[in-house]
Amino acid sequence: MSQYTVNPRTPKRLSRAAQSPAILDLPMDTRIHITTAIIYSNGPPHVGHAYEVLATDAFARFQRRKLGNANVTFVTGTDEHGDKNKRAAEAAGLHPKAFADKISALFRDGWAGLDISYDFFVRTTDPAHQALVQKMLARSYECGDIYFKDYEGLYCVGCERFYTEKELLPGNICPVHNTPVERIKEGNYFLKLEKYRAAIRAHIEKNPDFIRPERYRNEALRMLDDPLEDLCISRPKARLDWGITLPFDDKYVTYVWYDAFWAYVSELPDTSDASLTAILPVTQHFIGKDILKTHAVYWPAMLLSVGLPLYRHLNVHGYLNFGGAKMSKSSGVIQDPIAYQQTLGPDVLRFFILREYTYGLDGDFTEQRVIDRYNSDLANDLGNLTSRVLSMAARYFQGAITATPGSGTDPIDAALVGTFTALPSRVAPLVEELAFNRALEAIWQALDAANKYIVATSPFTLAKDPAQLPRVAQILANLVEGLRVVADTLEPFMPITSKKILALLNVDQEQARAPYGKGIKPGHRVNPTTPLFPRIDKKAGS
Questions:
Q1: In whole angstroms, what is the distance from residue 155 CA to residue 157 CA?
Q2: How many other C-beta atoms are found inside a 10 Å radius of the C-beta of residue 19?
Q3: What are phi and psi of 121, to 5 degrees?
Q4: Digit-coded pLDDT (tens) for 62-77
Q5: Using an 8 Å Cβ cutoff, are 123 and 97 in contact?
Q6: Residues in Cβ contact with 389 at an 8 Å cutoff, skipping those fewer than 6 apart
Q7: Is there a contact between 233 and 189 (Cβ–Cβ < 8 Å)?
Q8: Got the DSSP string for 517-534?
Q9: Which residues are part of the catalytic machinery?
Q10: Same structural domain, 312 and 421
């Protein structure tokens, strides 16, 4: 029986048991499979994890709007085997499985607190996952791609991988964790990598957007310039017994990275070759730049070894730093993402991360920057516009919309209508390109246009003259309809805020998704306003 967790908080989509293999037969442009990295379960979630999962969630929500709920799957989960997790469990005085249960629950609770809309939370200790891993190990072994040899190498526990001396910093220091590596000598099983180097390189060159952004594509190509050392894919149980047993040698467990990759597809109800061949070409992986080599070199080799196609995109983000230092458990530099959600309210951390940082580049996270962005963009712009428009509707027309949005003849009306009409089509390609910050910038440009429209048309002043009330009604109809478009377009980025604004506007989902001018009609009545983002009049930490 499957141990996979289906997210109860997401909109109702097909559960693992109910999914039909027929979905996998859909054309590639109507089906998408989205994954985050499978996170090491050696410590609680931090804002660095939230950076990845929030960006992935925005992309998944956008794709559901485009393709429909049933045609999109979003997978996340915890990677629970390996040296690092066992050592963390021992330090906590727990059996590795008990420790993994505890940490995995923290991540599920954390993602629920951030309203992450994953479909499946996969654990690498799940029986179905382990069965798929053993199936693929056996296939690579049977075709001669896995072999045994004695080996001596430099091993980083934090990375759970062997390094060559040229990959390390002076003094044999791990470039990711900045800690000394260990020299280990033992017999192990290896997967042939050099055999597939030319094929992987050719695929990257033939598909320029296979790895995004381009800087990471270029970095991956450099990794493939020289012959590859074969990949150690086992650990002797005499040294590490916490892992999935090799199907061809019960004295060994598999390398944690070989194990974890298959979690991207092991949640499928059908893991036959036909199903995997259908799903991998529409798979989009979201990962951090520190695991580029494992995903751009190791994972493709594993797939090619068992005769499966490669994934569609590898989407690589930078580090989220805190005061200039990389945010990570190993460095001790961590910030609790749920604390921000509880303190500042829903969607604030999500908005800040997606608005502030360019996907692919490193970013520096500070509490003061969160507060400054909150006050300027959320309180002053979005919150203030919503409040002003709905307050005027209540004051002058008891909440009723008495004019047709977009029907004004004044050039200033036409300019505003044009801005909101074009907004969804401006945002869509930017999300597809992972330019989340630019997509939000486009939305905020529309908000700025609306605020300037209020200043230019001065409905507060016009309303003092009863003869001008029809003009005020037109201005408000234009603005209310614009707010509706903004709220709907914001949904992938700020789902809770989007729902709140749409509730204030008193529109259902069908109205919400309509083009500008086709949603709110004369006779519609909006609800009284409530504060969305009260200003924070204090400095961080005060």
A1: 6
A2: 18
A3: -105, 110
A4: 999 999 998 999 999 9
A5: no
A6: 450, 454, 476, 479, 480, 483
A7: yes
A8: TSS--TT-BPPPP--SS-
A9: 46, 49, 156, 159, 174, 177, 326, 329
A10: no
* Better pLDDT: 367 or 459: 459
DSSP string, 137-158: HHHHHHTT-EEEEEEEEEEETT
333 and 417 share a domain? Answer: no
Amino acid at 242: W
Give, for 509, the enclosing helix (H) or strand (E): helix 509-512
Distance in angstroms (rounded) separating the CA atoms of residues 390 and 73: 37
Burial category of 424 from C-beta neighbours within 10 Å (exposed 0-12, middle 13-18, buried 19 and up): middle
Domain that holds residue 497: 367-512
Q: Is residue 354 a part of any domain in this protein?
A: no
| CATH code where residue 410 lies | 1.10.730.10
The answer to whether residue 395 is domain-embedded is: yes
Same domain, 23 and 119: yes
pLDDT digits (tens, 9 = 90+) for 168-180: 988 889 888 788 9
Q: Above 80 in pLDDT, residue 323? A: no
Contact 4, 122 (CB under 8 A): yes
Answer yes or no: is 527 within a domain. no
Residue 230 is classified by DSSP as: P
124 and 57 in a common domain: yes
157/217 same-domain check? yes
- Distance CA(327)–CA(99), nearest Å, equals 22
Residues paired with residue 184 on neighbouring β-strands, in sequence order: 153
Q: Is residue 530 part of a domain?
A: no
Give the domain CATH number at 32.
3.40.50.620
Query: What is the pLDDT averaged over residues 445-454?
Result: 98
Q: Which is nearest to 477 in space by CA: 537, 542, 417, 415?
A: 417
Token code pair at residue 489: 């377009």
Task: Name the domain count of the chain.
Answer: 2
Which of 279, 310, 344 is at the close of a domain?
Answer: 344
Nearest to 451 by CA among 499, 485, 416: 416
Dist. CA 269–CA 28, nearest whole Å: 19
* For range 57-66, the mean pLDDT: 97
Compute the distance between CA of residue 39 and CA of residue 127 in angstroms, rounded to an integer.
Answer: 18
Residue 228 and residue 260 in one domain: yes
Whether residues 150 and 250 fall in one domain: yes
How far apart, in whole angstroms, are the C-alpha atoms of residue 453 and residue 482? 11
pLDDT on residue 342: 78
Express each pLDDT in 265-287 by its tens digit. 998 888 999 999 999 999 999 99
Tell me how far apart the alpha carbons of residues 146 and 365 are, in angstroms, rounded to a whole number: 43
Q: Do both 415 and 324 map to the same domain?
A: no
